[in-house]
# Entry
Amino acid sequence: MATFKLDGKTIPFEPGDTIIKAAYKQGLEIPNYCWHPGLSSPANCRMCLVEIAPKAGARPLMLDVLEWDAKAGTYRTAQKPKLLPACYTPAADGMEVLGDTSEHVRRARRDVQEFLLLNHPVDCPICDQSGECKLQDYWLEYGHYQKRMRDEPVHKPKGVVFGPTIVYDGERCVMCTRCIRFMAEVAKDPVLDMRERSNLNEIVVAPGRQLDGHYTFMTEHVCPVGALTTKDFRFKARVWFLKTAPAVCQGCATGCNAHLDYDPRYNKAYRYRPRDNEKVNKFWMCDEGMLTYKEAHDGRVLEAKVRGAVTSTAKALEEVKALFSGVAKDSIAIVFSAGHSLEDNWALRELGTVLMGTKSLYVAGRPDGYEDDILIHRDKNSNTKGVQQLAPAAKPLAALVEEVAAKRITHALALGSAAADDAFPSSAGARSDRVDVDALRLSKLVVIAAHEGPLSAVATVLLPATSWAEGSGTFVNSKGMRQVSEKALEPQGASRPAWRQIADVAAALGYEASWTKLRQIRAQLMGTAAADAAAASSPSVADSATAE
Ligand code: SF4
Ligand code: SF4
Ligand code: FES
# Structure
């Protein structure tokens, strides 16, 4: 493979890679504002300038400059190497690139910083980007100068509402155009543009439009400074108090990789950020998915209930025992959840088919919804494929309703609360709207769920399960990729992992579950304990590059 040297380090590259892209692939950051690995390169910020050492015997590319001679009190002519943007210059075999090791490069970076900050308000104490802002990071690394401009800075519009989700601050904007390019190139909706010139530059929304659609949050995410903020996260938290866990979005079957940012002091999730994974979501997430972090808290089942009345988990388990004792296995149904992890569904399958011996298997999930050809999948469940693999013969929930109405099924054990019609939608047919599950009241229904929904509403016994945010779980996306979503929060209320609740239900019914730990389930799922380790570092984790 062809290579070049960056500050003495050997960097391999593919044909067509720019210097910055090749370095990025090796986990090295060349300072940048306008470049983004998922967007085109306008090379307008000049922060990535590098020095290219001339080949032996070749004439160096030099530039005439004026330098201030403090002693003489005047400018004098001088020469310096002509620096090139690493985001636009193709890597070449044997090239020698100087970045941090070149005094010219370090000075250029400092000068770009000074230029960008001439009119910047430096309102870091009230800026949501503070703590993860490239202006701050690069000032610490290359700035450290005394501001020379004494004039009143140029003032620009602040707090401009771009649309239902995004607010713009013109004074903080460094005009990198990432937001414009994201909307044009990825979201395919060129609704943003730049107007005026020089220090009067400003980002604007097309006349008659607002910044809306399914990918507006990404403009905030690609913005390297605090110029674009989401209404959702604005003024809610300081990022240095947040911790993060590698998660998998639960919004649809695409299974976008995400960082779930949470504050451990309050056991509270604050936001999702995309986690780069070229094979799944590249660098992006959709708005609907970005907001699903709220489901870590909203609509949760946090206490056990028997016939709607709150009780302890122990009492609820006693009720399960009373309900199910002596019931013929042919009268019992199992309902898998297309939104719960592979581990939870596996435990339910073990209890239902191996220990209880039932053959009546069903699956429930959320109804289909909007889809596009960027990321968003019609299937709004994170693990339909996983359940399909575990229980290919599982029937749609509507079939269970019929069986219960006909009194052929009298007892059911269900995972999750969602209830849509078609279990595994064919590529031709969409999963229709919610099933009317009212008839399930005729049965003795035990529901183990993290969220309230149609099934929890008709449950005889409801046991609280942890959500995906409170435990580690494996989800199989629409492409069949197993991805692990890791634990961020501590279990809330009386909730416990569903696979653990299922083991307790098994014990209450007089069976001995073969699992007491997650890793035992994973070993079963993957075939061997060694393969379990592979699941723990799923493609989502292993293939992820460092997110911005
Ligand atoms: S708003 Fe942010 S992303 Fe857009 S041009 Fe300004 S600094 Fe760049
Ligand atoms: S496309 Fe699907 S998985 Fe990706 S962020 Fe949106 S809802 Fe989540
Ligand atoms: S990152 Fe290269 S010019 Fe902006």
User: Anything to note?
Assistant: Residues 103-117 form the longest helix (15 residues). Confidence is low (pLDDT under 50) at residues 528-548.
